[in-house]
Amino acid sequence: METARLAEPQPQPQQRASLTQACARLADATPFNLAIFAVIVANAVVLGLETYDGVVREAGGLLSALNDLFLAIFVAELLIRIAAFGSRPQRFFRDGWNVFDFVVIAAAFLPGLRENATLLRLARLARILRVVRLLPDLRVLTVAVARSLPGVASLTVLAVLLVYVYGMLGWVIFAEHDPEHYGTIGDAMLTQFVLLSLEGLPEAIDRGLELSGWTVLYFVSYTLIAAFLLLNLLIGVVIDSLDEAHKMEAERALAERRAAAAATEDPEDDRRLAIEDRIRELRATLDALEQELRAGPPKAA
């Protein structure tokens, strides 16, 4: 009897590795991601239809069933992505986007959620945001926006300071001549804030010319400093953040491929990663040589 038990097939590691590899390839497959994208769009359409009372009265049961079907598909997708990491599923949670997906989908199973219509709609709406996870370019833009927030906050402080200073100057110059726009510091700052977009600038200049021709310097200096200079600084901050986001996305994608390769025993994945590492090293070497070439020959002592 004991011999028969020992002869029984034990769980084969090769089968588990094959399943992990199949899940990893499926999760990275373009048709699979396109299908999930289509489901997210369909989920958004259904949520929009639920805002029409007539549609809910006629097809409320169908819409509810579709929402449940979408949730089941999202759960299956999440399980496939976790299974792609094989015996180390904890690596799935090292990526912020994966954590976001897990939280958004798991929120649907919170106790009492279905009894609260508002929370249920918010949970379903949050699943629509998963479209960012599936579109690399949109994901890069989202990361870039997040990374640009500190720089944008500093520019906001500078903009408020300029608006306040020019608002005070405007109050001193135009308080009696144009009390509607510069009667108080609040009115003056609001006027200057609107002028940041150059909206109404010609009219403001005309009102200033009625008082004195020198007022043109006030509006021209404000336009150059507050509108043009701040706008260019903002563009520079966003571009720098976008470059950082591209690098972060490339590193994240590489980390995912390394984790997927480590979870399988297929030597082909390791060979591809090794080739990519060599290509990156060659590119870095070429960049360094190009910089040396641009720098020119070293100066003699």
Topology:
Elements: H1 2-7, H2 13-28, H3 30-49, H4 53-83, H5 96-106, H6 117-128, H7 131-134, H8 136-174, H9 179-182, H10 185-195, H11 201-211, H12 215-262, H13 267-295
Helix pairs in contact: 2-4, 3-4, 3-6, 4-5, 8-10, 8-12, 12-13
Structure description:
With 301 residues, the chain is mainly alpha-helical. The protein has two domains: 2-134, Up-down Bundle (Four Helix Bundle (Hemerythrin (Met), subunit A)); 138-295, Helix Hairpins (Orthogonal Bundle), CATH 1.10.287. It contains 13 helices and no strands. The longest helix is centred in the last third of the chain and has 48 residues, at 215-262. It starts with a helix and ends in a 6-residue tail after the last helix. The model is unreliable at 1-11 (pLDDT under 50).
Number of separate strands: 0
The CATH class of the largest domain is identified as Mainly Alpha
What is the H-and-E element order? Answer: HHHHHHHHHHHHH
CATH architecture of the largest domain, by name, is: Orthogonal Bundle
Average pLDDT level: 79
Largest sheet descriptor: none
Instruction: Please tally the helical runs, counting DSSP H or I stretches of 4 or more residues.
Output: 13
